[in-house]
Amino acid sequence: MADRPLFKAIAQTPNLRSELVDTLSAQIEAGDLQPGQRLPTEQAIMEATGVSRTIVREALATLRAKGMITTRQGLGAFVSSDPVSRAFSITSSDLESIDDVLHVIELRIGIETEAAGLAALRHTDEDLARMEGRLDAMDDAIRANLYGAEEDYAFHRSILLASGNPYYARLFDTFGSVMVPRQWTRLAHMTDSERKRHNARIGREHRAILAAIREGNERVARRLLRDHLTTSARRFALLRDGN
User: Fold this and answer.
1) Which CA distances in Å does 95 have to 66, 135, 183, 202, 242?
2) Coiled-coil intervals in this record (predicted)?
């Protein structure tokens, strides 16, 4: 293993830091870089991957923040003693591009579609009241000319709570409001009429999901939640492609 190169050249994309973080993380998780082992020098990583020193330092800082590596003054960076056991997280710094946002939405589709079906089967009256309240709060925020991102996040989290499985909400809490990434949307550039139509459509989709859950229709709840997030993914893809 020692003779096998740990790194290879990284394609020159807008996400160089993320690409390098993924490369280093994969080497650590695969055991190619063992706990306590010293990482190659910044210069060695630069030469192997073709990225700049700044990118290397940013990637190492990200891994350090995730608890995967530690640094020792004058000695360099070392793999943490228990790197794999660290909690997985997604932070705002991970969302460098629209492609990153699309990856998050794909993850949400997998999580929330299942949760919506479970919510239709298991919800309580308290769950329904909570979801209704979150949508009312989002309507209030939009009327106040705000984006309503936090309220949007709270509604989706309330669906996870209604699933009856506490781990869904705990997973969502690990990610926080980055699960509803608004920084890439066109809302700030929309005309008033465009923004009203956009918000009205989002509101209809949310209310339809709630209605399916209230009626106990597992199949429809799943489909509507998936359609809702898939539509969001299409909007981001169009934004990425300049349409």
Assistant:
1) 15, 26, 10, 23, 18
2) none
Contact 127, 151 (CB under 8 A): no
Ramachandran angles phi, psi of 77, nearest 5°? -105, 145
Q: For residues 181 and 202, what is the distance between their CA atoms, to the nearest angstrom?
A: 15
Question: Whole-angstrom distance between the N-terminal and C-terminal Cα of the chain?
Answer: 47
Measured between alpha carbons, how far is 50 from 102 in angstroms, rounded to an integer?
A: 26
Task: Write out the two tokens for 154.
Answer: 């709270």
pLDDT at 92: 60
- Closest to 65 in 3D by CA, of 87, 46, 81: 87
Q: How crowded is residue 124: how many other Cβ atoms within 10 Å of its Cβ?
A: 11
- Summarised one tens digit per residue, pLDDT across range 177-213 is 666 655 445 555 677 788 888 889 999 999 999 999 9
Instruction: Name the more confident of 90 and 150.
Output: 150
Identify the helix (H) or strand (E) that includes residue 28.
helix 16-30
Q: What average pLDDT does range 203-227 have in this prediction?
A: 98
Cα gap 129→159, rounded to integer Å: 11
Q: How far apart are CA 171 and CA 160, in angstroms?
A: 10
Between CA 22 and CA 29, with CA 27 as vertex, the angle to 5 degrees is: 90
